[in-house]
């Protein structure tokens, strides 16, 4: 088990969240997979080891992780929500053909946030930006 998963499980325990085998497996899968899976993909990956687990169990646990600030929910268009255990500031490139999502980092956009605050009088707490294109596989 990775240190990241151990730290996350410890944080859940501190917050009074009981660690079930399913919860542990879902969290581990999310943190080990950088593929931004859907709840259905998580379910299909874990179902052989947890035949009594339902898709609802996956959704309920993802909700717990969202509320604890341990994962982000990514919604793009009409596609299913995807989940990202990397909560650091980063951006996504999304393939318009197959839906693959890749992470990338770039310098902070805090100057743009500041300008948004100045021009709107809003208090900006963050931003979301994604790029769309065609992945290498789909360019084929």
Automatic annotation (TrEMBL):
Stored SUPFAM superfamilies: Winged helix' DNA-binding domain
DNA-binding found in the keyword field: yes
UniProt keyword list: DNA-binding, Repressor, Transcription, Transcription regulation, Zinc
Superkingdom, taxonomy of origin: Bacteria
InterPro entries according to UniProt: FUR (IPR002481), Fur_C (IPR043135), WH-like_DNA-bd_sf (IPR036388), WH_DNA-bd_sf (IPR036390)
PANTHER family: PEROXIDE-RESPONSIVE REPRESSOR PERR, ZINC UPTAKE REGULATION PROTEIN
Recorded family membership: Belongs to the Fur family.
Name of the protein in its database record: Fur family peroxide stress response transcriptional regulator
Organism: Paenibacillus shirakamiensis
Source lineage: Bacteria, Bacillati, Bacillota, Bacilli, Bacillales
